[in-house]
Specification:
Layout lengths: L5 H7 L14 H36 L12 E2 L2 E2 L2 H31 L3 H16 L2 H15 L6 H25 L3 H9 L4 H30 L2 H6 L20 H7 L8 H36 L1
Antiparallel strand pairs: 1-2
Helix pairs in contact: 2-11, 3-6, 3-8, 3-10, 4-6, 5-6, 6-8, 7-8, 8-11, 10-11
């Protein structure tokens, strides 16, 4: 290159002020970029591939035999439909959201707005430890404490109480995080205007934090819908239609129990296996509906908060 004329040298090697000039990139930096993007793609594949494989497997087994009549047909032994398990799953989820949600929101509000110092750290550590306890352990504790010691028997109430405990850490964490992100100027402005603390919390702070809180409720609802082991210990299973008039001493059917008990592992009957696949498909649909509804509510809440 040094033997070329000046004009040709300029064309072959554009200078820093030329439009086509790019600063040289070292081989080490280029190799680092390639390694970084390669690791990112591998991590993405580890998330996407199992999910696609799982969903595709369920769809391939459920859709060929699926009939919408399964939604309103009663379960009869190892055949029929999924009416009772659908009702039981919906009731358990709603009950857990009401009980667990109320406790969690109040806990998150207390931790963010009123708790201080060591007290806050102890409470936060308590619900974080609760999140790490295996669900089957909580189910066994619920069985011993509620079903046996308190003589409630298998039923709706023990199931809802155990699932509510499972959901508390997730809703509490999202509530605390969302409230912490609300600008302190909102609280100071309300105090300067003489607005009562309770009114300011309900109408200003909680309303602004609602989009973030919904995330925790979505995760908790998905957990309530997809739990199996705790419900086997507390709800058991029954062909009876769930009713709020019998919250104790009557088993509650739920979809994950159908997936587990009617699978090919335990039941060689074809009609039972078909119900297992249909129940798995409905669980996927319920989770998808939760995601869509949650995103819609969060978008509207964020728009109203702004």
């Amino acid at each position: 290159m040094s033997g070329l004329p000046a004009a040709e040298r300029d064309v072959a090697s554009p200078g820093p002020h030329d439009p086509g000039y790019f600063p040289p990139v070292s081989r080490r930096r280029r190799a680092g970029n390639l390694v970084f993007w390669g690791v990112c793609l591998i991590a993405l594949a580890l998330v996407i591939v199992p999910t696609v494989w799982l969903v595709a497997g369920i769809l391939a087994r459920a859709i060929p035999h699926f009939h919408f009549s399964v939604l309103w047909t009663r379960t009869a032994g190892l055949s029929g439909g999924l009416l009772q398990p659908i009702i039981g799953t919906v009731l358990i989820t709603i009950g857990a959201m009401i009980i667990g949600g109320a406790i969690s929101v109040l806990t998150g509000l207390y931790l963010t707005e009123f708790a201080t110092g060591r007290h806050r750290g102890v409470l936060r550590g308590a619900y974080e430890v609760l999140a790490g306890i295996p669900s089957i352990v909580l189910g066994f504790v619920g069985y011993v404490a509620l079903v046996v010691d308190l003589h409630l028997g298998f039923g709706f109430l023990p199931a809802v109480l155990v699932v509510s405990v499972l959901t508390i850490p997730y809703i509490t964490k999202s509530t605390e995080t969302a409230l912490a992100q609300v600008p302190s100027g909102y609280r100071e402005g309300a105090e300067a205007l003489g607005i009562p603390v309770s009114w300011a919390m309900r109408k200003i702070v909680l309303k602004s934090a609602l989009p973030g809180m919904i995330t925790g409720f979505l995760v908790a609802a998905a957990i309530a819908i997809g739990e199996t082991a705790p419900l086997l210990y507390t709800a058991n299973f029954s062909d009876q239609t769930p009713s709020l008039a019998h919250v104790t001493h009557q088993g509650v059917p739920f979809l994950t129990s159908v997936v587990y008990n009617f699978s090919e592992l335990f039941q060689p009957v074809n009609s039972a296996n078909i119900l297992s696949y249909d129940a798995a498909l409905l669980l996927l649909v319920f989770v998808l509906i939760l995601i869509l509804v949650g995103r819609t509510i969060a978008a509207r809440a964020r728009r109203n908060a702004e």
